[in-house]
């Protein structure tokens, strides 16, 4: 198609580049001083809340009004250099940020930090030692108030040398070196006891425990809690009722055949993933939960436990509270000892995988 418009013989105007919005310049100390009719030194004294400075109340109020009206923001870095510390708390983690349920550690730490006027600087290292070293060094340069050092599962850990240059708290981990560091960890024994008590309250007496094969504080603590609950109920501990499997869905599924030889009415699993596999194994053998066998897990992974059919009774790992408690410990708001880690309770979450059972 030929255009009917007549050519003017003039070149078409070049397209204009999009206009870049002008950035508002930060308000300076001098502008505040001019607005308040005082010197920059007076403004500085008011901002830094120098109580001994001889400044009239009316003058102090004029400066505050000018700061508010102009939107002046004090230079945090300059204040850090003067005070020797900042309003930041560091959190260095090996995988917490990328692990859905353990990510609650960050949530708890962040909420508690904000509550006390601090912001959280987070570094997720994925276990890379060089990255971890650089992250801690950066936080030291920013003069953080302190550092939370966290792991995504409860375990002993070596303390990085650079971490010792800061005030720090271990979260969800602990140092095997006695008296080396303050730490906050889940109470695995209490959690194991609470999980077993759910089944005991349901009237069960012959209760199996499928433990993990991997050595960890959770393996030992959850077994001890199981034994403590049985003892408190007057039930003798039977080692034959303790099985071991890899702590995942396949491990729970694979343990089913051996479990059914034990003639039990209830099972406590090391974690929710094992319980999910056990559900499958029981179903394939024509058994139902909880009518034939009651099941309890551990961890309370919402994506698993709340959505199994029937929903799984379990014990929750207190990740949110671990993060919050770590901040409180760092700020000296909670008592702590270097001699032993502070243990945070693991609350029971009862759902439909356990019902009242009448012993034969």
From TrEMBL:
Question: Which GO terms fall under molecular function for this chain's record?
Answer: DNA-binding transcription factor activity; transcription cis-regulatory region binding
Q: Which residues form a coiled coil?
A: none
Which SUPFAM superfamilies does its entry note? Answer: lambda repressor-like DNA-binding domains, Periplasmic binding protein-like I
The segments labelled Disordered in the record are 1-25
State if Repressor is listed as a keyword.
yes
> What are the UniProt keywords, alphabetically?
DNA-binding, Repressor, Transcription, Transcription regulation
List each copy of the HTH lacI-type domain by range. 27-83
| Signal peptide, first to last residue | none
Q: Show the Pfam families listed in the entry.
A: LacI, Peripla_BP_1
Record-given protein name: Putative LacI family transcriptional regulator
Q: Which organism was this protein described from?
A: Arthrobacter globiformis (strain ATCC 8010 / DSM 20124 / JCM 1332 / NBRC 12137 / NCIMB 8907 / NRRL B-2979 / 168)
Q: What is the lineage of its organism?
A: Bacteria, Bacillati, Actinomycetota, Actinomycetes, Micrococcales
